[in-house]
Write a structure and sequence with these properties.
Elements: E1 2-8, E2 11-16, H1 22-36, E3 42-48, H2 56-68, E4 73-79, H3 83-92, E5 99-103, H4 108-116
Parallel strand pairs: 2-3, 3-4, 4-5
Antiparallel strand pairs: 1-2
Helix pairs in contact: 1-2
């Protein structure tokens, strides 16, 4: 399931409680696109709940989407205990002109504060 919430007008929050598959990623991209229809630049908070994983196909598709739309993102916060996901995000964002930070699940409040500014 995908739950969404707004932290501020330009900030979208996404909580994923299932494995992040290509199908789930399409839903996420749809939610982000809706926000981009209203705001030129947005911040994105993504939380992948405990013991959830991302498929390789979804990971690469998500990276492609980020690169294709980098000019529309100001900050991205990724909250997960998946070290593989965190490392992939950190590596893929080396060349983006977007502030991207990863947080452990226990630090979600810190992530919410950071993304809301």
């Amino acid at each position: 399931m995908l739950a969404t919430f707004d932290l501020a007008g330009h900030v979208i929050g996404l909580i994923i409680d299932k494995d992040l598959t290509d199908e789930m990623l399409q839903k996420i991209i749809g939610e982000i696109q809706e926000k981009l229809d209203v705001y030129e630049k947005i911040n994105v908070f993504v939380e992948l709940e405990k013991d959830r994983h991302i498929t390789l196909k979804a990971l690469f598709k998500g990276i492609k989407f980020k690169y294709s739309n980098a000019e529309n993102f100001d900050k991205i916060a990724i909250v997960t205990d998946s070290a593989i996901f965190q490392n992939a995000v950190n590596l893929s964002d080396t060349f983006l002109d977007v502030e991207v930070r990863t947080f452990d699940l226990k630090d979600r409040l810190e992530a919410i504060q950071w993304i809301s500014l």
